[in-house]
Specification:
Urease, subunit C, domain 1, 2 domains, nine-stranded mixed sheet, 29% helix, binds (4S)-2,6-dioxohexahydropyrimidine-4-carboxylic acid, binds zinc ion
């Protein structure tokens, strides 16, 4: 196994130092390290962060390998600075059995570019009717801890309560896609002035907020862990603030796109901006940024949602919701100014806290002697123009095409092996 001597990196934004990576761990940290035989990586001016961890990735395998595979999504993740991603369950077949989650887990290991931690479905076939085999998925080789019907809401409150009760036994968490379906029938974009002007059916903020409010109360009642996926409204933030003050065990995520883009983007009817939950107003974006900085929202999660050309480049109403996110997340977070260049906050929101929520003990640890060498090197001074053609994803549906964004991932290491060097995928 090659050793790597990383020269002059600023660990989580601190003073420049050297890091020796050997046998899968950070062996030494300090000035002017020497190591014969080690490959030198010049990290002058670069920030070293614990490898990023994504709680919300759609990898599309099994079933839609034309849009993404575990391998192509893993490569996109590594290029984005990630060392672990949690793979959503809305595949085909749905990841609602031990067999499917083990398959995804094995595909992740075989690709070897990031650790792929499967998320299990809450209900059979994501249909919302009956609980899936949560216990079997938890005790499988994939050791599932997060369960989600993402793409769909667990709308039945009795079923949601059962799910929360069930996962308590193994400290699991239910990750809810908060959308009261009766309030979003036919919805195409955020309900508001823009939707009215464009003549598109609205997705009201209250459809999210009603479920967030209900679920924090259920989580309190049961004493179990709830995670709220892709929070998108100022009202949800207020409910979460209240719940946390009350000591309810709730965590929450926001996507990069909800931190940067608004519903104004729908003006040209370009479906690349169609996403669920939809892009909201500038006031919502401002509330989400503040909530992330304050920690009312714990983490940034990408909701990386690759879609094949025929599912995206069509009329708005027929287009699938979702956007690519893995390769651009860090740059979008920097560009949003939500956390400024507070590297400690960025490490907390994009690596340490998501790792804690997912129970990934090998991840989310700052580079220090003895820690697993899961880390990423970022050039904060770089600026780059987003070119969809350069993406490692099988899909092209990035909403940032042509945009100039700050920051660039220069290298990523997974257990001491580079997956990205000089900004390029190693494999
Ligand atoms: O925009 C979205 N895309 N939101 C979801 O909840 C699901 C996801 C997908 O699977 O494409
Ligand atoms: Zn979702």
């Amino acid at each position: 196994m090659t050793a790597y001597l990383i020269r002059g990196a600023r660990i989580v934004g601190g003073e420049p130092t050297d890091l020796l990576v050997r046998d899968g761990v950070v062996a030494e940290v300090g000035p002017d390290l020497a190591a014969t035989g080690a490959q030198v990586v010049d990290a002058g001016g670069l920030v070293a962060l614990p490898g990023l961890v994504d709680l919300h990735t759609h990898l599309r395998e099994p079933g839609r390998e034309d849009a993404e595979t575990v391998e192509t999504g893993s490569r996109a993740a590594a290029l984005g600075g990630y060392t672990a991603v949690c793979a959503m369950a809305n595949t085909d077949p749905v990841a609602d059995t031990a067999g499917v989650v083990e398959q995804v887990y094995r595909l992740g290991r075989a690709a070897g570019l990031v650790d792929v931690q499967p998320i299990g479905a809450v209900t059979v076939g994501l249909a919302g009717g009956q609980l899936a085999e949560l216990g079997a998925m938890a005790s499988s080789a994939a050791a599932v801890r997060i369960f989600s019907d993402d793409g769909h809401c667990v709308a039945d409150p009795r079923l949601m309560r059962r799910a929360l009760e069930y996962v308590k036994a193994f400290d699991g968490v239910i990750a809810q896609h908060a959308e009261e379906p009766r309030l979003t029938q036919g919805a195409q974009m955020h309900e508001g002035e823009m939707a009215t002007r464009l003549g598109l059916t609205g997705w009201p903020a209250v459809a999210e907020e009603a479920i967030v409010a209900r679920d924090v109360l259920l989580a309190e009642h049961v004493g179990s862990r709830l995670h709220v996926c892709h929070v998108s409204t100022a009202g949800s933030v207020e409910i979460l603030r209240w719940a946390r003050q009350r000591g309810i065990r709730v965590t929450a995520e926001v996507t990069p796109h909800h931190l940067l883009l608004t519903d104004e983007k729908a003006v040209g009817y370009d479906p690349v901006f169609k996403v669920n939950p939809p892009l909201r107003t500038a006031a919502d974006v401002a509330a989400l940024r503040t909530a992330l900085a304050e920690g009312v929202i714990d983490v940034v999660a990408t909701d990386h949602a690759p879609h094949a050309v025929e599912d995206k480049e069509c009329e708005w109403a027929y287009a699938r919701p979702g956007m690519l996110g893995l390769e651009t997340a860090l740059s979008v977070v920097l560009g949003s100014q939500a956390l400024g260049t507070d590297w400690n906050a960025i490490a907390e929101r994009m690596s340490r806290q998501p790792a804690r929520i997912a129970g990934l003990v090998e991840h989310g640890r700052d580079p220090a002697p003895g820690a697993p060498a899961n880390l990423t090197l970022v050039d904060p001074a770089a600026r780059r123009v987003i070119d969809p053609g350069e993406s490692a994803s099988r899909s092209r549906n990035t909403p940032y095409a042509g945009l100039t964004l700050p920051g660039r991932v220069v290298a990523t290491f997974l257990r001491g092996e580079p997956t990205v060097l000089d900004g390029k995928a190693v494999r």
